[in-house]
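It is worth pausing here to work through a concrete case rather than discussing structure prediction in the abstract. The textbook approach is simple: state the sequence, then state the predicted structure, then interpret. We follow exactly that order.
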Amino acid sequence: MNQIHRDTPPPSEPISHIDFLPIKKIKLPNGLTVHLVEGGSQEVTKIDLIFPAGSVQAAQPLLASTTNKLLSEGTSSLTSEQISEKMDFFGAYLGQQTNYHHAVVSLFTLSKHLEPTCELLSQIIKDPVFPQHELDLYLDKRKQEYEIEGQKVKTMATRKFTTTLYGKEHPYGNHLKPEHFSNITREDLIKFHKKVYIPKGSHMIISGQPGAQLESILSKYFSDTWQPGKYSDHFTAFALPDTPLTVFEKKENAVQSAIKIGRPLFTKNHPDYLPIQILNTILGGYFGSRLMTNLREEKGLTYGISSYIMSFKHSGFWVIGTEVKGEDRETAVKEIFHEINRLKTELVSAEELSLIKNYMLGDLTRNFDGPFSLADNYRSLLDFSLDMRFFQEFFDTIRHITAEELLNLADKYLKEEDFVTIIAGK
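Step two, the predicted structure:
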C-alpha cells in the first residue's frame, strides 16, 4: 500500500492543449444558421437565438432592449401569464438580453420537453403583440432603475467614458436619457420587430443533448420565413473625437469618486488582440494583478480595481476602473499610471510571467467545461467571422509569449497621451 505524504504535493503536468467539442453548422431554407454543440451528461438543452436587433439597428435608445424584453409578454393566442405558466410546467427558463448589435433569446429546457418548449419559443419569436399595459409597466420600472442607477458615481463615470471616447452621436457613446422613456410607442416595437427579427442573417446555437428529434423540430418550428424583413449589416463609420486627457463629472455630496482610465482599441480580429490580453491580466485582469497589489493591498486606496478589454463589432477599448475616497483620487490616478509605466520600462519577471500563464491557461480551460460554456464562448466569435481556432491560438499565445514581447506591446499601446481619465464625484 502506497503511503501518502501530505507535505508533498501530487505531481502535476502543464496543460498542452484544449479539446473542443465539435460544432456542426446547418443552414435552414429560410436563411437561419444553426450551430449544434452536442455534449454533456445531462438530458438538458440550451437554445440561443441571435437576431440582428441591437441598439445599433434600432438607432433609438431603449427601443431594442424594450422590444426584446416584451417578446414574452404576450402573443396573439397567449397572455404573459399563460406563457409563464407553460414555461414553469415544463421546468424551462427563458432569458433575454440585448447589446449593441444583437438581441438574444435563450431557452433552457429538459430535452424530453424540447418540442413543446420550442413550439412556445417559436410563438414568442414570431407572434408577439406587445400589450400596451405591459409596455407601460416595463417603461415605468426601467425609468425607476435608470434614475436610481444614474445617481451612482460608477455609472456616471462609465457613461461619460464611452461618450468621451466615441462621441454623443456614435452608437457606442449614445446613452439613454430621461426623454427617451416618453418617446417610445407600441407601434415602434411592432415595426422594429418586423424589420429585424428575421431568419436571414440570424443564428441559432443549440447546445447540450437535444436528441434525435431535433431535425424534425427545426423543420417544423423554425424553417419557415416568418418575417419578410431584409437583413442589413450596414454600419456608418464614425470618426473618433479628439478626447481631452481628463474629464470631471461632478456629483455634489459624493463620498467616493469613480475613476475610469482608458483608451480606444481594436477588435478581436486584430493580430495584437490575444497577446494584449496577457498584458491586461498582469496589469489589472485578476485578483493578484499589479493594480490590486498596489492600490488595494499596499496602499489601501480601494476595495477593488480592475482592467479589461472590450471588443465590439466595429471598435473596442481598454479601461481601468475603481472607486476611491474623494481625497484619494489624485493619488490613485498617479499610482495607476505608475503601474502602466512600469510595464513599459521593466521586463516582467520569469516568476510573475509563469504565474500569469498558469492562471490564464487554467481559466481558459475552465471556460470550455461543457457544451453550454463552449456555446457561450463560440457565440462571442460570430461577429468577427472567427471559429474555435481563435481559442487554440489564444492558448498557444499564452504558453509561448515572452517578457520581451510584453514589453514591446506595452511600449506600443500604453502611451499615457492615448488615455483619457474620467473622474465622477464631488
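Step three, interpretation. DSSP finds 16 helices and eleven strands in the chain. The first strand starts at residue 24 and ends at 27.
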